[in-house]
Amino acid sequence: MLVESVFRYRTLQGKCDLGIGLDWDEIEQIGAIEEAFAPSVDDRRMSSGRRFRREPVKLTGLMRGDRIHDRVDIVELAPGGLVIRNAPFVARGEQVEIVIEVGDASYRFRAEGVWLRDDGDDYKVGLVFRGMPVCVRKHVNVTASRDTLPDVFSQIARAA
Question: Which of 67, 79, 80, 95 has CA 20 to 30 A from 134's CA?
């Protein structure tokens, strides 16, 4: 999926920024992702220095920051950043966290406000990713149930 590719790219880029370096497989992965998001020759934004082409998406995310905890619509996504709609005011340079839930994974990206436009009652905001993202996986243990777990209180009573 697109979110996983962006997560992978940001993680590999983060390893480079930390000075850890990449192995040959990781170098190939980062090259493949960059090639997949390369702007076309006729893309008007290529002349402005944008490194990646943004892909249109329909995702919902959670934006968290200083006094911000709002659901937003993610409308464009790229390895360098994203565009959101139905967003609260985000000042240029303001740091926020974007949380995107996909299946059993919660992808968390640190981002910085770059531009803001009025969008009805809310705003349309351009964010650039900063730093290394985090992925939290949710695992449900379906084999254990309340009946199969040892009852701690019963064990204490028997021991006394």
Answer: 67
Q: What share of the chain is helix, strand, coil (3-state, %, to 5)?
A: 25, 40, 30
The DSSP bridge pattern shows strands 68-78 and 81-87 to be antiparallel
Residue 79 CB coordination number (10 Å): 23
Average pLDDT, the chain: 87
Note whether 125 and 115 are within 8 A (CB). Answer: yes
Average pLDDT over residues 133-146: 74
Q: Element (H or E) spanning 57, and its range?
A: strand 55-65
**Residue located via tokens 């992925």:** 135
List CB contacts of 63: < 8 A, sequence separation 6 or more.
Answer: 69, 70, 71, 72, 84, 87, 88, 90, 96, 97, 98, 99
**Model confidence pLDDT, tens digit, residues 83-104:** 999 999 999 999 999 999 999 9
33 is written with which tokens?
């992702």
Handedness of CA 92, 60, 117, 89 (dihedral sign): negative
Amino acid at 119: D
* Contact (CB, 8 A) for 106 and 81: no
Query: Angle at Cα 153 formed by Cα 148 and Cα 157, nearest 5°?
Result: 120
